[in-house]
Amino acid sequence: MLRKLPGDEVQNVVSTRPDTSIHYRPVVVRTPGIVFLAVHLSRMVAALVKTVWRHPVACTLLAAAGALVYFFGWRVWVSVAGLEIAALASWFALSRSSFEACVALPALTWCRWMWVYRRKWAGIMAVAGLGRSLGGRSYLPDLVKVTCDRYADRVTVRMLSGQDPDEWAVSTAGLAHGFGADRCRVKVLKPGRLLLTFPRKDALAKVLPPQPIPDRPHVHAVFAGLTEDGRLFRMRVHGTHLLIAGATGSGKGSYLWAAVRGLLPATQAGLAELWGLDPKRMELAYGRALFQRYAATAEECAVLLEKAVEVMHERASRYGGVRRDHDPTTQDPFILVIVDEVAFLTAYQPDKGLKVRVMAALSTLTTQGRAVGVAVMAALQDPRKDVMSIRNLFPDRIALRLDEAEQVDMVLGDGARDRGALCDQIPFDPDDPSVGAGVAYVRLENSPEPIRVRAGYTSNDEIKRMVMQYTAAGEVA
Ligand SMILES: Nc1ncnc2c1ncn2[C@@H]1O[C@H](COP(=O)(O)OP(=O)(O)OP(=O)(O)O)[C@@H](O)[C@H]1O
């Protein structure tokens, strides 16, 4: 076997035992000291320039402190530092939000960049299997940027060339544990770049009040609650259809009532109509007077859905060739058809004829209704296909607490759970119904990445107040 190896290589063979693979002794190239020094010096200079570029404020402060001590001695430095601390404390007292944006969050970003992400990056990438070894060299994904806001760290990553984002999606649990977070979500920013979100504090831990009723009538999006980074969650109702799925007691009602609240001024102005289908009679019935049309029995529900289809067709025949979208007016108001527990009508309905009529009407509305201003918002507990075969016709979907992990992708689409939509892990406490209620992951038509949100809770008293305020005006039933 040795004789077959070409020329000089034979002298580099370290192991020649027949039961082991062949190892070659690495070739040693003697590098002149000056080259070695030049390489290390250039690396140091590059690192220095990079640090100053990335952290200009911290570097300027350090340089200024060093210059003070050098030129004026440490006593002057202590007095200046004392003055600076006093100035910062006054800034904090006077304007907490600007202090947070200009001082606290950049400082936190710097600390977390250095202490958490840079320090642990190589180890975690290797353990999570996201690095590669090629020809004896290790390659790791690049940590590009870290930004911290009040609630989460956002880490921008440059993937290895040719790496699949799904590889990251399946490693989210390991990444979250590694960097000391509860969860990690992965979002593709552009080819080759990912954004990892590691929440630090849960903006959605507490029960949220319902969002105020808007002062002016509009139909485009309603404020339903907060997103996990503390921003207002705008739920589109016009120009889409919304499916809301969640186990019993998960808080589906809070999304339905958020839509009703947000559209009340528009209904009062005649620019919108709320049509309620309430086969369970336990949810919408409480604010029945707020609905311009209301149905409870399966027969009434089928008739109301067919009426919506009729309006839709009539508008389509008028709009055809004249306009391509709907602008709400008092002649053609936006119609939101709200169906609570739609499975009562589509799956558990014993009357087959009614079931067929309901399914036909729902399919027609969800495929053709949005361009003419008729939208469907349907809530259900069980998202399986045999219960709701047309779930894919809803462009926007909200998944609250679900019983099984497999149900997440059924509602939000393939891969949603791997990208961080952990609906099956939303907390639930039978002794306190508010725990985790209203918390959901949302998948919007224009953004397939799931967003974690919580709806404000519209209590029964609040519904009563809405009825008093909006029915007393004489505009509704
Ligand atoms: N957004 C919310 N924030 C806090 N608590 C909430 C929220 N929504 C609902 N809850 C609590 O959860 C309970 C159940 O809510 P809700 O009836 O809306 O659930 P559901 O999903 O519609 O259940 P079901 O399908 O059984 O009707 C409420 O009585 C309330 O105590």
From TrEMBL:
Native source organism of the sequence: Actinomadura luzonensis
Keywords of this entry: ATP-binding, Cell cycle, Cell division, Membrane, Nucleotide-binding, Plasmid, Transmembrane, Transmembrane helix
Pfam families tied to this protein: FtsK_SpoIIIE (PF01580)
The organism's taxonomic lineage, starting at the top: Bacteria, Bacillati, Actinomycetota, Actinomycetes, Streptosporangiales
Protein name, UniProt field: Cell division protein FtsK
Residue positions binding ATP: G246, A247, T248, G249, S250, G251, K252, G253
SUPFAM superfamilies cross-referenced by the UniProt entry: P-loop containing nucleoside triphosphate hydrolases
Residues that span the membrane, as ranges: 27-49, 56-77
InterPro entries: FtsK/SpoIIIE/SftA, FtsK_dom, P-loop_NTPase
GO terms of biological process kind: cell division
PANTHER family: DNA TRANSLOCASE FTSK, SPORULATION PROTEIN RELATED
Domain FtsK: residue ranges: 219-409
